[in-house]
Amino acid sequence: MVTGASSGIGAAVARALSREGAHVALAARRSEALREVQAGLDQQCGAAKSLVMPTDITDRRQVKSLIARTEQDLGPVDILVNCAGVMFYTLMKNLQEDDWERTVDVNCKGALNCIGAVLPGMISRGRGHIVTISSDAGRKVFPGLSAYSASKFFVEALSQGLRLETVGTGVKVTTIQPGNVATDLLSLSKDVEALEMYGQPGGARVLDPEDVAASVMHALRQPEYVAVNEVLVEPRDEPV
Ligand SMILES: NC(=O)c1ccc[n+]([C@@H]2O[C@H](COP(=O)([O-])OP(=O)(O)OC[C@H]3O[C@@H](n4cnc5c(N)ncnc54)[C@H](OP(=O)(O)O)[C@@H]3O)[C@@H](O)[C@H]2O)c1
């Protein structure tokens, strides 16, 4: 199950999973974009099944239906990759309160909704892997990204707690902490002042979504007794 599978990192993770022969459920709001990603999967790997599920992860009922439909069509969810997320460059003094709220709704509550929908099944089956695409902003706060950084500190804390509470259950919990990746994420920001101050490209070669997907696959490929808890993956010339 991959959320945020309609573009960027989520689409790359879905392709990587499908290449490995996994059945993949693709979730995000834009059904047309999901179908395009699915068409790419089917061309790559005939054996792996896939399912497109238009879902707003901020709506807990939609997330529960997503899991129910996935289990019905593809079987139990062994792997959840929480990729769906938003990021708004904005200065706190500019009071873009709708963007703050959206950040919390999608990045924090959305991740909770998805984890809540798969966790009981994983525990009862004695296996499962929850991977959340956090950020290097989950380790260090960036100016212009206060609310976003806070949301990524939230998913880091949530994942740490979940990891500690699921010891002995067979469930693994991983966060991936990418630096700048070439995706559409930056295009959401409308606070011109924040973008000018902090959102300009630094000139370094940034990551491709496939580089982040490779980190996800590294965490997933480990033997049962090995847990990759956190992966910080950044452009070489943009260390935190
Ligand atoms: N790009 C970077 O530099 C970077 C760095 C570190 C971490 N990340 C993290 O990587 C993740 C993926 O971002 P990306 O860079 O791949 O950007 P992206 O291409 O804009 O992808 C964001 C995804 O989230 C989905 N999404 C947003 N709101 C949603 C909602 N309410 N319900 C369901 N899906 C929703 C979008 O799909 P729909 O619009 O179709 O719903 C889209 O598939 C995010 O969590 C982001 O914070 C990105």
Outline:
Residues 1-184 form the Ketoreductase domain. Belongs to the short-chain dehydrogenases/reductases (SDR) family. The protein is 45% helix and 14% strand.
Structural account:
The chain is of the alpha/beta class and 240 residues long. The protein has a single domain (2-233), classed as Rossmann fold (3-Layer(aba) Sandwich). It has 7 helices and 7 strands. The chain has helices at residues 8-19, 31-44, 60-74, 97-125, 146-165, 192-198, 209-220; strands at 2-3, 24-28, 50-54, 79-82, 128-133, 171-178, 230-233. It has a 7-stranded parallel sheet with strand order 3-2-1-4-5-6-7, sandwiched between helices. Helix 1 runs parallel beside helix 2, helix 1 (8-19) packs across helix 7 and helix 4 packs parallel to helix 5 (146-165). 42% of the residues are buried. The mean pLDDT is 97. NADP nicotinamide-adenine-dinucleotide phosphate (NAP) binds at residues 3-4, 6-10, 28-30, 33, 55-58, 83-87, 106, 110, 133, 135, 178, 180-181, 183-185. NADP nicotinamide-adenine-dinucleotide phosphate binds at residues 3-4, 6-10, 28-30, 33, 55-58, 83-87, 106, 110, 133, 135, 178, 180-181, 183-185. GO terms for molecular function: 2,3-dihydro-2,3-dihydroxybenzoate dehydrogenase activity; 3-hydroxypropionate dehydrogenase (NADP+) activity. It comes from uncultured Rubrobacteraceae bacterium. It holds the Pfam family adh_short. It is an enzyme of class 1 (oxidoreductase). This is NADP-dependent 3-hydroxy acid dehydrogenase YdfG.
